[in-house]
Amino acid sequence: MDRTDCETLTIEYLCTLGVLREEAYVKLNKPPKNRPIYKWNQDTWVKFDSDIDNMTLCHLCFESYQYISIDYDEVASNSKPPAALCGLINLGNTCFMNSVFQCLNNIPKFTQSILELHDEQNAPIICEYKNLIKKMCSRKYEAIRPSSLLCNIQDSLPRYKTYRQQDAQEFMNHFLHLIHAELSMKNTIITNIFYGQIRSTVKCLGCAQAETNNEPFTFLPLPITNYNQRCVRYIKADGEQRLVSLEVDSSVITVGELVDCFLKQHEPKLTRKRIQVVQLVNHSVETVYDSGRSLRYIPEKELALIECSETTTRERHIWCQFIHHSTNTAFRPPIILTCPDENCSYLHLSEQIDQVLGHLCSITNAPMSTCDVYWLNRKRKPSKLNITTNPDLPYISGVHIEMTTKWVDIYKQHYRINHSNDNSRLANLLTDFFREDYLDDDYHCEKCSKLTVARHKSDLCLPLPHVLIIQLKRFTYDVNSNQKIDTYISFPLYDLDLDEYIVKDNTDIPEKNLQTKYDLVAVSNHTGGLTSGHYTAYSKNPQDGNWYSFDDDVVRQLNSDNNVVTKNAYILVYVQRTS
Ligand SMILES: [Zn+2]
What we know:
The chain has 579 residues and is α+β, with helices and mostly antiparallel strands. Helix content is 24%, strand content 31%. It has 4 domains: 3-78, Roll (Ubiquitin-like (UB roll)); 87-200 and 456-576, Cysteine proteinases (Cathepsin B, Chain A, Alpha-Beta Complex), CATH 3.90.70; 227-310, Ubiquitin-like (UB roll) (Roll), CATH 3.10.20; 312-433, Ubiquitin-like (UB roll) (Roll).
């Protein structure tokens, strides 16, 4: 909690919570609202709803110099450093467990609900989990040993006594069920937060009779097919950029062969010479790859294909970079311009530059005049390009196009949303999962009173679960072979929309349950093979909004949100949007 941004409120110890709220709003000069009040209790905010407004502060154990908040979210987002950045020490092949805890801890509603539970005598796992969360939030430790929690889990489930590598999804499932069981009620925080319902419909093709069945679920297990798919960034000469997926077999090992694949699948009219393959780091070109370069050590996320025109012997390529005016850093990948080797003038570039300015302005709705164009001389010193005087550019080594924060933000926003939606392979897996299909086995139809052929379809029922956990089924076990599938699956960080998978015959659902969009909060990753491997977690800290990597006791911030999506992703944790 950041205590620098506090107001002092003097109030009678015997006054009520309702009076405290009124005074607090007056003090902060805000219009009064009937919202909960939060009380700082050692290491966390405790919520007091307005239905206990009549109770006195004395009864509610408020202390002198008590910290309170009327807007928890605001306080939480201001507090630095983030509270729950604590590693978990590996107790002997327990990385699967650490990964699961780091995923669950960053589901704000779940953590808050656990902390609000009363200590029950017959609930040792909840009790230890609560202690673990409190310790992790206390900011006193860089890493702690989750030993007593593990001991209690082992008492209930002896399979975890072996200290062998276990499946993180199975463990997460077991752990949630252990908590549910300790609460010994029908509806618990587990059912409220994690349970959804799937309606499964089987339709007999003989008589068209349909049989439906609703089943609760906590995980969506999505099968993955085993082919090599690569996802690369493609930047066109007119400035347009998109992620393209390439189906690549094992014979493709060099950059040149990858380009051939790309041309065949996406741009059959272009030739190899028209594509430059580069490594992009923070939107700047780090390396230009030649076609013989092996793909093996090139990180896929940094690989980009850039379209250019073919040059004659009297022409050459120069880079056109896109610079954010205030930070002087690139806000999108560069494009390649073609100019004469000597005696270049603005006329040689005008068409190419106008095209890309047109792209920037059509995406952002910015007026053309907001883009400043600079040319760089031999020493890469920028000078403003005065278009009306049609200047000579004696030796031009590059072009910069600058935009200000307002338009850069709109531009980046556009690409964030588009990239997360249009190219999500996760969406394809979900579509497959909910697609109508023939039932594998014969179906005994009551009406036809014989074995018939039937079709099967699954749909999501409303209300949707608060937390959606997706398992990418990378581990397959069958008679012939057990394997781990390393296929890269892209998935969105924001705006995963479940609308199209919802059963459509429900009309009496209250408005507030109709939110169908989800944002990602955590990923459990698995590296390595079927028999030996390692689990880590990527989680989004609810307080500072940054993504962190949790590798047992080592916690570090991810350089970029783009690094969250990897081929190691195994469990995806999405949280339903509140508005
Ligand atoms: Zn039938």
